[in-house]
Structure prediction request, 599 residues.
Amino acid sequence: MSRLFMFEKPLGMRDTLPELHDAKESVRSSIEMEMKRWGFQFIETPALEYYETVGMASAIQDQQLFKLLDQQGHTLVLRPDMTAPIARIAASKLYKEQIPLRLAYSANVYRAQQREGGRPAEFEQIGVECIGDDSVSADGEMIALAISSLKKAGLEPFQLSVGHVGFVNELFLQILGNEERARELTKFLYEKNYVGYREHVHSLPLSSIDSQRLLAFLDLRGGPEVIGKALELVENGKGRDALDELKILWEIIEDFGESSRIKFDLTIVSHMSYYTGILFEVYAGMIGFAIGNGGRYDKLLEKFGKTTGATGFAIRLDRLLESLGDLEPPEPVTCILFSPERRKEAYQMAAEKRENHERIVLQDIRAVRNLDACSDAFANVVFLVGKEGTQ
Amino acid sequence: MNKQLTIAMPKGRIFTEAVELLRNAGFELPPEFDDSRKLIIDVDEEDFRFILAKPMDVATYVEHGVADLGIAGKDVLLEEERDVYELLDLKISSCYLAVAGLPGTKINDVAPKIATKYPNIAAAYFREQGEQVEIIKLNGSIELAPMIGLADRIVDIVSTGRTLKENGLVEYETIAGVTSRLIVNPVSYRIKDERISELIKRLNEVIY
Prediction:
Protein backbone atom coordinates (compact mmCIF):
# COMPACT_ATOMS: atom_id res chain seq x y z
CA MET A 1 0.00 0.00 0.00
CA SER A 2 1.25 3.43 -0.89
CA ARG A 3 1.89 5.93 1.87
CA LEU A 4 -1.26 7.44 3.27
CA PHE A 5 -2.01 11.10 2.88
CA MET A 6 -2.44 12.67 6.30
CA PHE A 7 -6.07 13.59 5.55
CA GLU A 8 -7.07 10.05 4.58
CA LYS A 9 -9.63 7.90 6.38
CA PRO A 10 -10.09 4.12 6.27
CA LEU A 11 -12.03 2.81 3.27
CA GLY A 12 -15.72 3.60 3.45
CA MET A 13 -15.47 5.95 6.44
CA ARG A 14 -16.86 9.45 6.13
CA ASP A 15 -16.75 12.74 7.96
CA THR A 16 -20.02 14.54 8.51
CA LEU A 17 -19.52 18.24 7.93
CA PRO A 18 -21.68 20.94 9.59
CA GLU A 19 -24.41 21.34 7.00
CA LEU A 20 -25.03 17.60 6.64
CA HIS A 21 -24.75 17.19 10.40
CA ASP A 22 -27.57 19.67 10.91
CA ALA A 23 -29.74 18.01 8.30
CA LYS A 24 -29.11 14.57 9.79
CA GLU A 25 -29.93 15.80 13.24
CA SER A 26 -33.20 17.35 12.22
CA VAL A 27 -34.36 14.25 10.31
CA ARG A 28 -33.21 11.99 13.14
CA SER A 29 -35.01 13.98 15.80
CA SER A 30 -38.31 14.06 13.91
CA ILE A 31 -38.21 10.28 13.51
CA GLU A 32 -37.08 9.67 17.07
CA MET A 33 -39.88 11.87 18.35
CA GLU A 34 -42.43 9.85 16.40
CA MET A 35 -41.05 6.56 17.69
CA LYS A 36 -41.22 7.88 21.24
CA ARG A 37 -44.81 8.93 20.67
CA TRP A 38 -45.54 5.32 19.79
CA GLY A 39 -44.10 4.36 23.15
CA PHE A 40 -40.77 2.98 22.01
CA GLN A 41 -37.86 3.42 24.39
CA PHE A 42 -34.44 4.29 23.06
CA ILE A 43 -31.37 2.36 24.10
CA GLU A 44 -27.66 2.31 23.29
CA THR A 45 -25.39 -0.68 22.96
CA PRO A 46 -21.61 -0.89 22.57
CA ALA A 47 -20.04 -0.55 19.14
CA LEU A 48 -17.90 -3.63 19.83
CA GLU A 49 -19.40 -7.06 20.41
CA TYR A 50 -18.07 -10.60 20.47
CA TYR A 51 -17.85 -12.27 17.09
CA GLU A 52 -19.08 -15.53 18.61
CA THR A 53 -22.29 -14.01 19.94
CA VAL A 54 -23.62 -10.96 18.12
CA GLY A 55 -21.31 -11.37 15.12
CA MET A 56 -22.52 -14.91 14.41
CA ALA A 57 -26.17 -14.14 15.16
CA SER A 58 -26.31 -11.13 12.88
CA ALA A 59 -27.93 -11.24 9.47
CA ILE A 60 -24.90 -9.66 7.89
CA GLN A 61 -22.53 -11.89 5.96
CA ASP A 62 -19.25 -12.86 7.57
CA GLN A 63 -17.04 -11.18 4.97
CA GLN A 64 -18.76 -7.87 5.65
CA LEU A 65 -17.84 -7.85 9.34
CA PHE A 66 -15.06 -5.68 10.70
CA LYS A 67 -13.16 -7.97 13.05
CA LEU A 68 -10.48 -7.26 15.61
CA LEU A 69 -8.92 -8.96 18.61
CA ASP A 70 -9.15 -7.88 22.24
CA GLN A 71 -6.27 -8.29 24.67
CA GLN A 72 -7.43 -11.76 25.69
CA GLY A 73 -7.45 -12.87 22.07
CA HIS A 74 -11.24 -12.93 21.64
CA THR A 75 -12.46 -11.97 18.21
CA LEU A 76 -14.58 -8.84 18.31
CA VAL A 77 -16.79 -7.26 15.67
CA LEU A 78 -17.93 -3.73 15.09
CA ARG A 79 -21.70 -4.19 15.31
CA PRO A 80 -23.01 -4.79 11.78
CA ASP A 81 -26.62 -4.14 12.78
CA MET A 82 -28.58 -3.25 15.90
CA THR A 83 -31.06 -6.09 15.90
CA ALA A 84 -28.66 -8.72 17.20
CA PRO A 85 -27.35 -6.55 20.11
CA ILE A 86 -30.93 -5.73 21.08
CA ALA A 87 -31.86 -9.41 20.96
CA ARG A 88 -28.88 -10.05 23.25
CA ILE A 89 -30.09 -7.50 25.80
CA ALA A 90 -33.70 -8.53 25.53
CA ALA A 91 -32.91 -12.20 26.07
CA SER A 92 -30.56 -11.64 28.97
CA LYS A 93 -32.05 -8.69 30.83
CA LEU A 94 -35.19 -6.94 29.76
CA TYR A 95 -37.56 -9.63 28.67
CA LYS A 96 -38.32 -11.02 32.12
CA GLU A 97 -41.97 -10.17 32.60
CA GLN A 98 -43.15 -11.69 29.33
CA ILE A 99 -44.61 -8.31 28.38
CA PRO A 100 -43.89 -7.23 24.81
CA LEU A 101 -40.90 -4.91 24.73
CA ARG A 102 -40.77 -1.90 22.44
CA LEU A 103 -37.22 -0.68 21.95
CA ALA A 104 -35.73 1.85 19.56
CA TYR A 105 -32.28 2.99 18.53
CA SER A 106 -30.39 5.33 16.30
CA ALA A 107 -26.85 4.15 15.94
CA ASN A 108 -23.99 3.71 13.54
CA VAL A 109 -23.46 0.23 12.16
CA TYR A 110 -20.44 -1.09 10.30
CA ARG A 111 -20.26 -3.20 7.18
CA ALA A 112 -17.11 -3.60 5.15
CA GLN A 113 -17.72 -2.86 1.50
CA GLN A 114 -16.34 -5.10 -1.18
CA ARG A 115 -16.57 -2.94 -4.21
CA GLU A 116 -16.06 0.66 -5.22
CA GLY A 117 -14.24 2.01 -2.20
CA GLY A 118 -16.40 5.07 -1.57
CA ARG A 119 -19.50 3.26 -0.42
CA PRO A 120 -20.14 3.96 3.23
CA ALA A 121 -18.93 1.20 5.54
CA GLU A 122 -20.25 3.07 8.56
CA PHE A 123 -23.76 4.43 8.44
CA GLU A 124 -26.54 5.35 10.79
CA GLN A 125 -29.68 3.31 11.19
CA ILE A 126 -32.81 4.36 13.01
CA GLY A 127 -35.06 1.52 13.92
CA VAL A 128 -37.30 -0.25 16.37
CA GLU A 129 -37.72 -3.78 17.64
CA CYS A 130 -40.87 -5.21 19.14
CA ILE A 131 -39.91 -8.30 21.14
CA GLY A 132 -42.25 -10.89 22.61
CA ASP A 133 -45.25 -10.20 20.40
CA ASP A 134 -46.23 -12.98 17.97
CA SER A 135 -49.34 -11.27 16.69
CA VAL A 136 -49.86 -9.89 13.21
CA SER A 137 -50.84 -6.68 14.97
CA ALA A 138 -47.17 -6.24 15.86
CA ASP A 139 -46.17 -6.71 12.20
CA GLY A 140 -48.79 -4.17 11.23
CA GLU A 141 -47.59 -1.75 13.88
CA MET A 142 -44.04 -1.93 12.47
CA ILE A 143 -45.27 -1.06 9.00
CA ALA A 144 -47.54 1.71 10.23
CA LEU A 145 -44.76 3.17 12.37
CA ALA A 146 -42.31 3.04 9.47
CA ILE A 147 -44.81 4.94 7.32
CA SER A 148 -45.59 7.43 10.04
CA SER A 149 -41.90 8.07 10.79
CA LEU A 150 -41.05 8.69 7.16
CA LYS A 151 -43.97 11.07 6.81
CA LYS A 152 -42.72 12.98 9.82
CA ALA A 153 -39.30 13.15 8.18
CA GLY A 154 -40.97 14.82 5.20
CA LEU A 155 -40.34 12.04 2.69
CA GLU A 156 -42.60 11.93 -0.37
CA PRO A 157 -43.21 9.82 -2.38
CA PHE A 158 -42.46 6.47 -0.84
CA GLN A 159 -43.91 3.00 -0.88
CA LEU A 160 -43.56 -0.31 0.96
CA SER A 161 -43.54 -3.79 -0.50
CA VAL A 162 -44.63 -6.57 1.81
CA GLY A 163 -43.88 -10.26 1.49
CA HIS A 164 -44.00 -13.38 3.64
CA VAL A 165 -41.03 -15.74 3.87
CA GLY A 166 -43.21 -18.39 5.50
CA PHE A 167 -45.32 -18.56 2.37
CA VAL A 168 -42.31 -18.94 0.09
CA ASN A 169 -40.83 -21.69 2.27
CA GLU A 170 -44.08 -23.62 2.48
CA LEU A 171 -44.89 -23.40 -1.20
CA PHE A 172 -41.41 -24.51 -2.23
CA LEU A 173 -41.37 -27.29 0.34
CA GLN A 174 -44.77 -28.57 -0.78
CA ILE A 175 -43.75 -28.71 -4.40
CA LEU A 176 -40.10 -29.68 -4.13
CA GLY A 177 -40.34 -32.10 -1.21
CA ASN A 178 -37.28 -31.21 0.82
CA GLU A 179 -35.51 -28.29 2.46
CA GLU A 180 -32.40 -28.53 0.34
CA ARG A 181 -34.21 -28.26 -2.96
CA ALA A 182 -36.36 -25.46 -1.58
CA ARG A 183 -33.26 -23.58 -0.49
CA GLU A 184 -31.68 -24.02 -3.90
CA LEU A 185 -34.67 -22.38 -5.56
CA THR A 186 -34.93 -19.66 -2.89
CA LYS A 187 -31.35 -18.71 -3.68
CA PHE A 188 -32.42 -17.60 -7.16
CA LEU A 189 -35.04 -15.32 -5.61
CA TYR A 190 -32.50 -13.96 -3.15
CA GLU A 191 -30.13 -13.23 -6.02
CA LYS A 192 -33.02 -11.63 -7.96
CA ASN A 193 -32.23 -13.95 -10.84
CA TYR A 194 -35.63 -14.77 -12.35
CA VAL A 195 -34.12 -16.08 -15.56
CA GLY A 196 -32.13 -18.59 -13.53
CA TYR A 197 -35.21 -19.37 -11.43
CA ARG A 198 -37.26 -20.24 -14.51
CA GLU A 199 -34.46 -22.28 -16.05
CA HIS A 200 -34.05 -24.15 -12.78
CA VAL A 201 -37.78 -24.88 -12.54
CA HIS A 202 -37.81 -26.20 -16.11
CA SER A 203 -34.84 -28.44 -15.34
CA LEU A 204 -36.59 -30.11 -12.38
CA PRO A 205 -38.52 -33.34 -12.83
CA LEU A 206 -41.90 -31.86 -11.90
CA SER A 207 -45.41 -32.32 -13.18
CA SER A 208 -46.44 -29.51 -15.51
CA ILE A 209 -48.95 -28.31 -12.91
CA ASP A 210 -46.23 -28.00 -10.30
CA SER A 211 -43.84 -26.15 -12.62
CA GLN A 212 -46.70 -23.86 -13.52
CA ARG A 213 -47.30 -23.17 -9.83
CA LEU A 214 -43.66 -22.26 -9.33
CA LEU A 215 -43.60 -20.02 -12.39
CA ALA A 216 -46.87 -18.31 -11.46
CA PHE A 217 -45.36 -17.58 -8.06
CA LEU A 218 -43.12 -14.92 -9.66
CA ASP A 219 -46.20 -12.90 -10.58
CA LEU A 220 -47.55 -12.63 -7.03
CA ARG A 221 -47.16 -8.87 -6.86
CA GLY A 222 -49.75 -6.15 -6.44
CA GLY A 223 -52.70 -5.26 -4.21
CA PRO A 224 -54.83 -7.45 -1.91
CA GLU A 225 -55.96 -9.52 -4.91
CA VAL A 226 -52.53 -11.19 -4.77
CA ILE A 227 -53.62 -13.16 -1.72
CA GLY A 228 -56.40 -14.82 -3.69
CA LYS A 229 -54.00 -15.72 -6.47
CA ALA A 230 -51.53 -17.09 -3.94
CA LEU A 231 -54.24 -19.24 -2.33
CA GLU A 232 -54.68 -21.02 -5.65
CA LEU A 233 -51.01 -22.05 -5.51
CA VAL A 234 -50.93 -23.68 -2.07
CA GLU A 235 -52.54 -26.89 -0.96
CA ASN A 236 -52.02 -27.57 2.71
CA GLY A 237 -52.51 -25.66 5.92
CA LYS A 238 -49.23 -23.92 6.49
CA GLY A 239 -48.98 -21.88 3.35
CA ARG A 240 -52.55 -20.84 4.00
CA ASP A 241 -51.64 -19.67 7.48
CA ALA A 242 -49.11 -17.30 5.97
CA LEU A 243 -51.70 -15.96 3.57
CA ASP A 244 -54.23 -15.54 6.38
CA GLU A 245 -51.62 -13.46 8.16
CA LEU A 246 -51.18 -11.28 5.10
CA LYS A 247 -54.94 -10.86 4.82
CA ILE A 248 -55.16 -9.73 8.43
CA LEU A 249 -52.15 -7.49 7.89
CA TRP A 250 -53.89 -5.80 4.98
CA GLU A 251 -56.92 -5.12 7.19
CA ILE A 252 -54.67 -3.77 9.93
CA ILE A 253 -52.95 -1.38 7.56
CA GLU A 254 -56.35 -0.33 6.24
CA ASP A 255 -57.41 0.40 9.83
CA PHE A 256 -54.31 2.53 10.20
CA GLY A 257 -55.50 4.30 7.05
CA GLU A 258 -52.29 3.60 5.14
CA SER A 259 -53.14 0.81 2.71
CA SER A 260 -52.36 3.05 -0.27
CA ARG A 261 -48.71 2.96 0.80
CA ILE A 262 -48.26 -0.80 0.62
CA LYS A 263 -48.18 -3.40 -2.05
CA PHE A 264 -47.71 -7.12 -1.75
CA ASP A 265 -44.72 -8.77 -3.32
CA LEU A 266 -44.47 -12.38 -2.27
CA THR A 267 -41.17 -12.80 -4.11
CA ILE A 268 -39.28 -10.65 -1.59
CA VAL A 269 -36.59 -12.63 0.17
CA SER A 270 -34.37 -10.06 1.85
CA HIS A 271 -32.12 -12.66 3.38
CA MET A 272 -31.43 -16.38 2.98
CA SER A 273 -32.41 -17.46 6.48
CA TYR A 274 -32.89 -14.56 8.88
CA TYR A 275 -36.53 -13.62 8.50
CA THR A 276 -39.29 -16.04 9.43
CA GLY A 277 -42.58 -14.36 8.53
CA ILE A 278 -43.92 -11.08 7.23
CA LEU A 279 -41.16 -8.85 5.89
CA PHE A 280 -41.04 -5.56 4.04
CA GLU A 281 -38.84 -3.12 2.20
CA VAL A 282 -39.20 0.64 1.88
CA TYR A 283 -38.62 2.43 -1.42
CA ALA A 284 -38.47 6.14 -2.10
CA GLY A 285 -38.91 7.51 -5.59
CA MET A 286 -35.63 9.37 -5.74
CA ILE A 287 -32.98 6.74 -5.20
CA GLY A 288 -32.29 3.32 -6.60
CA PHE A 289 -31.74 1.54 -3.28
CA ALA A 290 -34.20 0.52 -0.58
CA ILE A 291 -34.05 3.07 2.23
CA GLY A 292 -35.21 0.67 4.89
CA ASN A 293 -36.44 -2.80 5.59
CA GLY A 294 -37.84 -4.92 8.33
CA GLY A 295 -39.74 -8.03 9.25
CA ARG A 296 -40.32 -10.84 11.67
CA TYR A 297 -37.31 -12.78 12.94
CA ASP A 298 -38.64 -15.37 15.38
CA LYS A 299 -35.48 -17.51 15.44
CA LEU A 300 -32.96 -14.86 16.49
CA LEU A 301 -33.79 -14.76 20.19
CA GLU A 302 -33.36 -18.52 20.36
CA LYS A 303 -29.67 -17.99 19.69
CA PHE A 304 -29.55 -15.97 22.89
CA GLY A 305 -31.52 -18.54 24.84
CA LYS A 306 -35.09 -17.20 24.74
CA THR A 307 -37.94 -18.50 22.63
CA THR A 308 -40.14 -15.64 21.63
CA GLY A 309 -41.22 -13.84 18.52
CA ALA A 310 -39.85 -10.49 17.45
CA THR A 311 -40.29 -8.03 14.64
CA GLY A 312 -38.78 -4.69 13.74
CA PHE A 313 -37.43 -2.42 11.06
CA ALA A 314 -34.52 -0.11 10.34
CA ILE A 315 -34.22 2.97 8.18
CA ARG A 316 -30.88 3.96 6.68
CA LEU A 317 -30.45 7.60 7.54
CA ASP A 318 -27.92 8.31 4.75
CA ARG A 319 -30.24 6.98 2.07
CA LEU A 320 -33.23 8.72 3.58
CA LEU A 321 -31.35 12.03 3.45
CA GLU A 322 -30.38 11.36 -0.14
CA SER A 323 -33.99 10.77 -1.11
CA LEU A 324 -35.15 13.87 0.76
CA GLY A 325 -33.13 15.82 -1.80
CA ASP A 326 -31.70 19.27 -1.18
CA LEU A 327 -30.65 20.01 2.36
CA GLU A 328 -32.61 22.64 4.19
CA PRO A 329 -30.60 25.84 4.59
CA PRO A 330 -28.88 25.92 7.95
CA GLU A 331 -30.31 28.14 10.67
CA PRO A 332 -28.95 31.69 10.42
CA VAL A 333 -26.02 32.54 12.65
CA THR A 334 -25.23 36.07 13.82
CA CYS A 335 -21.63 37.07 14.42
CA ILE A 336 -20.78 39.72 17.00
CA LEU A 337 -17.39 41.19 16.19
CA PHE A 338 -16.03 42.96 19.21
CA SER A 339 -12.97 44.85 20.24
CA PRO A 340 -11.58 44.46 23.78
CA GLU A 341 -13.01 47.73 25.11
CA ARG A 342 -16.58 46.54 24.34
CA ARG A 343 -16.11 42.92 25.28
CA LYS A 344 -18.53 42.93 28.18
CA GLU A 345 -21.24 44.62 26.13
CA ALA A 346 -20.75 41.97 23.43
CA TYR A 347 -21.05 39.14 25.96
CA GLN A 348 -24.26 40.58 27.36
CA MET A 349 -25.77 41.03 23.91
CA ALA A 350 -24.85 37.47 23.03
CA ALA A 351 -26.38 36.11 26.21
CA GLU A 352 -29.66 37.91 25.53
CA LYS A 353 -29.87 36.73 21.94
CA ARG A 354 -29.03 33.17 22.92
CA GLU A 355 -31.84 33.31 25.46
CA ASN A 356 -34.02 34.06 22.42
CA HIS A 357 -32.78 30.84 20.75
CA GLU A 358 -30.69 32.76 18.23
CA ARG A 359 -27.36 31.30 17.19
CA ILE A 360 -24.56 33.71 18.11
CA VAL A 361 -20.85 33.61 17.41
CA LEU A 362 -18.63 35.85 19.54
CA GLN A 363 -15.54 36.84 17.61
CA ASP A 364 -12.68 39.07 18.74
CA ILE A 365 -12.14 41.32 15.74
CA ARG A 366 -8.37 41.35 16.18
CA ALA A 367 -8.23 37.68 15.19
CA VAL A 368 -10.04 38.27 11.89
CA ARG A 369 -7.66 38.57 8.97
CA ASN A 370 -10.20 38.95 6.19
CA LEU A 371 -13.17 40.99 7.34
CA ASP A 372 -15.14 40.61 4.10
CA ALA A 373 -14.90 36.82 4.08
CA CYS A 374 -15.87 36.79 7.76
CA SER A 375 -18.96 38.94 7.08
CA ASP A 376 -19.99 36.72 4.16
CA ALA A 377 -19.84 33.61 6.30
CA PHE A 378 -22.67 34.75 8.58
CA ALA A 379 -26.28 35.72 8.07
CA ASN A 380 -25.82 38.84 10.22
CA VAL A 381 -22.83 40.69 11.56
CA VAL A 382 -22.89 43.09 14.49
CA PHE A 383 -19.87 45.31 15.10
CA LEU A 384 -19.15 46.28 18.68
CA VAL A 385 -15.89 48.02 18.00
CA GLY A 386 -14.29 51.19 19.30
CA LYS A 387 -15.89 53.41 21.89
CA GLU A 388 -19.06 52.46 23.63
CA GLY A 389 -22.28 53.68 22.03
CA THR A 390 -21.02 53.57 18.45
CA GLN A 391 -21.85 50.74 16.05
CA MET B 1 -44.60 10.16 -9.32
CA ASN B 2 -42.49 10.31 -12.45
CA LYS B 3 -43.43 7.29 -14.51
CA GLN B 4 -41.04 7.84 -17.40
CA LEU B 5 -38.94 4.75 -17.95
CA THR B 6 -35.22 5.10 -18.50
CA ILE B 7 -33.61 2.19 -20.31
CA ALA B 8 -29.86 1.67 -20.50
CA MET B 9 -28.86 0.20 -23.84
CA PRO B 10 -25.49 -1.37 -24.57
CA LYS B 11 -23.59 0.24 -27.43
CA GLY B 12 -21.96 -1.99 -30.01
CA ARG B 13 -22.60 -5.64 -30.77
CA ILE B 14 -25.87 -6.07 -28.86
CA PHE B 15 -27.37 -2.70 -29.73
CA THR B 16 -28.77 -3.46 -33.19
CA GLU B 17 -30.41 -6.68 -32.08
CA ALA B 18 -31.84 -5.03 -28.99
CA VAL B 19 -33.36 -2.19 -31.03
CA GLU B 20 -34.84 -4.71 -33.45
CA LEU B 21 -36.38 -6.64 -30.58
CA LEU B 22 -37.97 -3.51 -29.11
CA ARG B 23 -39.36 -2.57 -32.54
CA ASN B 24 -40.76 -6.08 -32.96
CA ALA B 25 -42.48 -5.66 -29.62
CA GLY B 26 -44.24 -2.64 -31.10
CA PHE B 27 -42.22 0.19 -29.63
CA GLU B 28 -41.95 3.20 -31.93
CA LEU B 29 -38.27 4.03 -31.93
CA PRO B 30 -37.21 6.96 -34.13
CA PRO B 31 -34.88 6.35 -37.10
CA GLU B 32 -32.16 8.42 -35.42
CA PHE B 33 -31.72 5.46 -33.16
CA ASP B 34 -29.80 3.55 -35.77
CA ASP B 35 -26.91 5.88 -36.24
CA SER B 36 -26.91 8.36 -33.48
CA ARG B 37 -23.96 9.66 -31.60
CA LYS B 38 -26.22 10.99 -28.92
CA LEU B 39 -25.88 9.42 -25.51
CA ILE B 40 -29.43 10.18 -24.44
CA ILE B 41 -32.42 9.69 -26.73
CA ASP B 42 -35.90 10.63 -25.56
CA VAL B 43 -38.87 8.93 -27.17
CA ASP B 44 -41.74 11.10 -26.01
CA GLU B 45 -44.49 9.09 -27.73
CA GLU B 46 -43.67 6.09 -25.54
CA ASP B 47 -42.47 8.15 -22.56
CA PHE B 48 -39.13 6.39 -22.69
CA ARG B 49 -35.65 7.72 -22.27
CA PHE B 50 -32.81 5.63 -23.63
CA ILE B 51 -29.26 6.05 -22.48
CA LEU B 52 -26.47 4.54 -24.52
CA ALA B 53 -23.77 3.06 -22.34
CA LYS B 54 -20.75 0.81 -22.60
CA PRO B 55 -22.08 -2.77 -22.32
CA MET B 56 -19.96 -3.39 -19.22
CA ASP B 57 -21.53 -0.36 -17.50
CA VAL B 58 -25.22 -1.06 -18.14
CA ALA B 59 -25.71 -3.00 -14.91
CA THR B 60 -24.02 -0.21 -12.95
CA TYR B 61 -26.47 2.43 -14.21
CA VAL B 62 -29.36 0.14 -13.36
CA GLU B 63 -28.07 -0.77 -9.90
CA HIS B 64 -27.82 2.91 -8.98
CA GLY B 65 -31.29 3.55 -10.33
CA VAL B 66 -30.38 6.24 -12.87
CA ALA B 67 -31.75 3.74 -15.38
CA ASP B 68 -34.86 1.78 -14.44
CA LEU B 69 -34.10 -1.00 -16.86
CA GLY B 70 -31.23 -2.15 -18.98
CA ILE B 71 -30.22 -4.69 -21.55
CA ALA B 72 -27.05 -6.44 -20.52
CA GLY B 73 -25.18 -9.58 -21.49
CA LYS B 74 -25.13 -12.42 -18.99
CA ASP B 75 -21.32 -12.11 -19.10
CA VAL B 76 -21.61 -8.60 -17.65
CA LEU B 77 -24.02 -9.77 -14.95
CA LEU B 78 -21.72 -12.63 -13.94
CA GLU B 79 -18.68 -10.38 -13.87
CA GLU B 80 -20.22 -7.39 -12.12
CA GLU B 81 -22.63 -9.11 -9.68
CA ARG B 82 -24.77 -6.01 -9.39
CA ASP B 83 -27.85 -5.88 -7.19
CA VAL B 84 -30.45 -5.88 -9.98
CA TYR B 85 -33.33 -8.11 -11.03
CA GLU B 86 -32.61 -10.32 -13.99
CA LEU B 87 -36.12 -10.59 -15.36
CA LEU B 88 -36.00 -11.86 -18.91
CA ASP B 89 -33.74 -13.81 -21.18
CA LEU B 90 -34.06 -11.83 -24.41
CA LYS B 91 -32.32 -14.64 -26.30
CA ILE B 92 -30.38 -12.23 -28.47
CA SER B 93 -26.63 -11.87 -29.06
CA SER B 94 -26.10 -15.47 -28.14
CA CYS B 95 -22.53 -16.52 -27.41
CA TYR B 96 -20.65 -18.24 -24.60
CA LEU B 97 -17.77 -17.82 -22.21
CA ALA B 98 -14.90 -20.18 -22.88
CA VAL B 99 -11.36 -21.01 -21.91
CA ALA B 100 -9.04 -20.96 -24.91
CA GLY B 101 -5.33 -21.26 -25.62
CA LEU B 102 -2.74 -22.42 -28.13
CA PRO B 103 -3.43 -25.96 -29.35
CA GLY B 104 -1.73 -28.82 -27.54
CA THR B 105 -0.61 -26.77 -24.57
CA LYS B 106 -1.06 -27.27 -20.85
CA ILE B 107 -1.49 -24.70 -18.12
CA ASN B 108 2.00 -23.93 -16.84
CA ASP B 109 2.65 -25.64 -13.49
CA VAL B 110 5.15 -23.11 -12.22
CA ALA B 111 3.44 -19.86 -13.07
CA PRO B 112 -0.06 -20.52 -14.39
CA LYS B 113 -1.48 -17.35 -15.96
CA ILE B 114 -4.91 -16.54 -17.36
CA ALA B 115 -5.60 -13.38 -19.36
CA THR B 116 -9.15 -12.03 -19.52
CA LYS B 117 -11.53 -9.09 -19.65
CA TYR B 118 -13.52 -10.91 -16.95
CA PRO B 119 -11.27 -11.26 -13.90
CA ASN B 120 -14.09 -12.21 -11.51
CA ILE B 121 -15.58 -14.86 -13.77
CA ALA B 122 -12.14 -16.31 -14.53
CA ALA B 123 -11.10 -16.32 -10.87
CA ALA B 124 -14.34 -18.00 -9.79
CA TYR B 125 -14.12 -20.60 -12.54
CA PHE B 126 -10.56 -21.69 -11.81
CA ARG B 127 -11.17 -21.64 -8.07
CA GLU B 128 -14.04 -24.08 -8.58
CA GLN B 129 -11.71 -26.28 -10.61
CA GLY B 130 -9.25 -26.24 -7.73
CA GLU B 131 -6.60 -24.63 -9.93
CA GLN B 132 -4.39 -21.92 -8.54
CA VAL B 133 -3.85 -19.40 -11.29
CA GLU B 134 -2.83 -15.80 -11.68
CA ILE B 135 -5.45 -13.67 -13.40
CA ILE B 136 -4.23 -10.94 -15.71
CA LYS B 137 -6.82 -8.31 -16.59
CA LEU B 138 -6.74 -7.02 -20.17
CA ASN B 139 -9.15 -4.62 -21.84
CA GLY B 140 -9.29 -6.07 -25.34
CA SER B 141 -7.51 -8.19 -27.96
CA ILE B 142 -7.30 -10.95 -25.38
CA GLU B 143 -6.21 -13.44 -28.08
CA LEU B 144 -2.85 -11.73 -28.12
CA ALA B 145 -1.95 -12.96 -24.63
CA PRO B 146 -1.23 -16.66 -25.36
CA MET B 147 0.31 -15.81 -28.74
CA ILE B 148 3.05 -13.71 -27.22
CA GLY B 149 3.41 -15.72 -24.04
CA LEU B 150 1.69 -13.43 -21.54
CA ALA B 151 -0.73 -16.18 -20.47
CA ASP B 152 -1.35 -19.90 -21.01
CA ARG B 153 -5.09 -19.53 -21.32
CA ILE B 154 -7.61 -16.82 -21.94
CA VAL B 155 -11.20 -16.50 -20.72
CA ASP B 156 -13.34 -14.64 -23.22
CA ILE B 157 -16.68 -14.67 -25.01
CA VAL B 158 -16.89 -16.68 -28.20
CA SER B 159 -19.68 -16.16 -30.71
CA THR B 160 -18.59 -17.74 -34.00
CA GLY B 161 -15.13 -18.88 -32.98
CA ARG B 162 -13.63 -17.11 -35.99
CA THR B 163 -11.39 -14.74 -34.05
CA LEU B 164 -9.92 -17.66 -32.13
CA LYS B 165 -9.33 -19.65 -35.28
CA GLU B 166 -7.74 -16.78 -37.15
CA ASN B 167 -5.29 -16.37 -34.34
CA GLY B 168 -4.50 -20.05 -34.13
CA LEU B 169 -6.24 -20.63 -30.79
CA VAL B 170 -8.52 -23.48 -29.75
CA GLU B 171 -11.24 -23.77 -27.13
CA TYR B 172 -10.55 -25.94 -24.12
CA GLU B 173 -13.63 -25.59 -21.92
CA THR B 174 -16.98 -23.84 -21.97
CA ILE B 175 -17.78 -21.87 -18.82
CA ALA B 176 -21.31 -20.64 -19.43
CA GLY B 177 -23.74 -19.68 -22.15
CA VAL B 178 -24.38 -15.98 -22.66
CA THR B 179 -27.41 -14.14 -23.99
CA SER B 180 -28.72 -10.64 -23.34
CA ARG B 181 -30.96 -10.13 -20.35
CA LEU B 182 -33.49 -7.52 -19.35
CA ILE B 183 -32.43 -6.20 -15.96
CA VAL B 184 -34.37 -3.95 -13.59
CA ASN B 185 -33.51 -1.81 -10.62
CA PRO B 186 -35.15 -3.23 -7.45
CA VAL B 187 -36.80 0.07 -6.53
CA SER B 188 -38.08 0.76 -10.05
CA TYR B 189 -39.40 -2.80 -10.19
CA ARG B 190 -41.69 -1.93 -7.29
CA ILE B 191 -42.45 1.74 -7.89
CA LYS B 192 -42.94 1.59 -11.65
CA ASP B 193 -44.30 -1.94 -11.61
CA GLU B 194 -47.22 -1.38 -13.96
CA ARG B 195 -45.19 0.08 -16.81
CA ILE B 196 -42.47 -2.51 -16.34
CA SER B 197 -44.95 -5.41 -16.34
CA GLU B 198 -46.46 -4.03 -19.54
CA LEU B 199 -43.02 -3.83 -21.14
CA ILE B 200 -42.20 -7.38 -20.10
CA LYS B 201 -45.48 -8.64 -21.47
CA ARG B 202 -44.82 -7.04 -24.84
CA LEU B 203 -41.27 -8.34 -24.96
CA ASN B 204 -42.34 -11.82 -23.91
CA GLU B 205 -44.57 -12.05 -26.95
CA VAL B 206 -41.70 -11.56 -29.38
CA ILE B 207 -39.00 -13.65 -27.69
CA TYR B 208 -38.34 -17.22 -28.94
